[in-house]
Amino acid sequence: MNPQKTVYVGEPIKDISEKFEIFRGLKYLWRLKKTDHNLIKKVAYDYNLSFPISHVLASRGFIQKGQIDSFLFSSYEKDVFSPLLFKDLDLALSRINAAIDKKEKILIFGDYDVDGITSTALLLIALKPLGANINFYLPNRKKDGYGLSEKIVKQAYQNGYKLIITVDNGISAINSAQLAYKLKVDLIITDHHRPQDKLPHAVAIVDANQKDCTYPYKDLAGVGVIFKLVSIIYQQRNLTLPEKVYELLMLGTVADVAPLLGENRYWVRYGLGKINKKRSLAIKVLAKNSNLNKKILDSLDIGFMIAPQLNALGRLDDPRDAVRFLVSSNTCEIEKIGDILKNINETRKMLERKIFEDIEFAIFEKNINLETENVIVAANSQWPVGIIGLVAGKLMHNYGKPTLLFHLNKDGVLKGSCRSILEFNIFDALNENKELLINFGGHSFAAGLKLKKENLPKLKERLEHKIVRELAPEDLIPKIELDAEIDLSELKLNLLNDLCRLEPFGNKNEQPVFIIKNVTLLKAPMLLRERHVKCVVFSQGVIKPVIFFNRPDLYPILNNIGDKTFNIAAYISKSEWNEKINIELQGLDIATQ
């Protein structure tokens, strides 16, 4: 059984090979954009960068001086815009200030993911010092579902709340907003998701993705939107924001996979700088839980090691403890909740592996036939709704196809998570079929939805037809986008320093992938924990170890490769041990000659 088999839908069309150098990896199609080497040399000379890092910039379209300066040198003046450009921000400010002055009860309604958790914590710690009579509520994923419900609005009314402020949600809460209006509970919506055709009734809607909103940067996470609101509140009162705000802004932005360009890039850099000068107890506990012993944490550490612990609580349990964890100054409370986060995250990993194996087996048995199906769709009553989105993302990356996974409840209703490829806008696709859905929301590449079980075959059929109409076969091949070519001899500390200038890495500024050509195996590979493959390669007089995580399929290939040369697609990273810095290669795939 080889559950990680490669499925190629079709050969790349001719014009791709004119733009890219193409390599056939064992699992992925590799593409390296063809770039003028004279331009790469000029960038290297002008900015005192190593050639491979200059190659990365050129591959990503940073060729002109203005483009490169804008990317490399973030600044407040250049990248940060006035919050007053947001539509309805003045209305939101007026209502919040009035509520603070009158000591009206304010309820923050957040979300159960890290963006929602950090948004809630940020608004709480910003408004409490101003004398706000404020509390918060985060929905339980199992009991409450997503978003502001009519039940929560009723409870807020019964408990004397005069103002509800949503963070990281609310743009699709049409019925709940109408109920709040009838009950004379004022509603301010702050969100970053795309609005649908109809907007909720509210005192103010602060969301840059509204068509008539003039705020120029549209990619803020939910925590970024609420940060803009509180920053102007503090500015108008001539006060300094609490330092904790910048940590929360950075955490939520990275965790929500917001694009790390422009304003997000500036604030994530700023927040990382803050925590690396002085870490909060919460960050210290999360780093310890992850065995992160590094002096300097980067965005990848936050995204893959720190944030998942906070996310796990919202996926499997009550997310409100995560807010307390982030805002508390009580050491015992933080450490106690930190232990809970660690244990729940381990459970999350186990469940994620189980669901992934279930679907991989279905693919192997051809119950999901990737040779004829362009969308991966699966449902199960035993799959926790909080985990399926993570698995959908892995399957989408592994197979290069849009993926929709569902939890089936006892009433025959499917709650699902979608992850999609760059070439297929899943939000638009769901919007075209909204008559089949109970509700939906999200972004171009990720969405949540709910529908009746009997409507799923029709939805899948329509998505399949849309893909056949609009996508080319090569769009559905799992790919690795290479950024630059590098030789083993170029793996030196100055390269690491140059690589750091491209950080923070994340969405729209991914960690660069390098191709290392014509290496040979120095000795037999090792299979670690039956999942990871470690080997030592040789080229041009240089020897380097490489590790391939979760690629057991490579072990027999490398074991029989002999003295043949092959190419490697890999990340380059820094490891620290006993104050010694080493350069590591994390392999993604190999291509034999």
Count of DSSP E strands? 20
Round the Cα radius of gyration to an integer and report it.
25 Å
CATH class of the largest domain: Alpha Beta
Number of domains: 3
Q: Count of DSSP helices? A: 21
Q: What shape does the CA trace take? A: globular
Helix percentage: 40-55%
Strand content: 15-25%
Largest sheet: 5 strands, parallel
Give an overview of the whole structure.
It is built from 21 helices and 20 strands. It is α/β, with parallel strands linked by helices. The protein folds into 3 domains: 14-72 and 480-592, Beta Barrel (OB fold (Dihydrolipoamide Acetyltransferase, E2P)), CATH 2.40.50; 79-341, inorganic pyrophosphatase (n-terminal core) (Alpha-Beta Complex), CATH 3.90.1640; 368-476, Diaminopimelate Epimerase, Chain A, domain 1 (Roll). The strands form 4 sheets. Strands 4-3-5-6-7 form a 5-stranded parallel beta sheet, sandwiched between helices. Strand 1 and strand 2 (29-33) form a beta hairpin.
Q: Which tags fit this structure?
A:
alpha/beta, 3 domains, five-stranded parallel sheet, five-stranded mixed sheet, 593 residues, inorganic pyrophosphatase (n-terminal core), OB fold (Dihydrolipoamide Acetyltransferase, E2P), 20% strand
Give a short overview:
The chain has 593 residues and is of the alpha/beta class. It has three domains: 14-72 and 480-592, OB fold (Dihydrolipoamide Acetyltransferase, E2P) (Beta Barrel), CATH 2.40.50; 79-341, Alpha-Beta Complex (inorganic pyrophosphatase (n-terminal core)), CATH 3.90.1640; 368-476, Diaminopimelate Epimerase, Chain A, domain 1 (Roll), CATH 3.10.310.30.
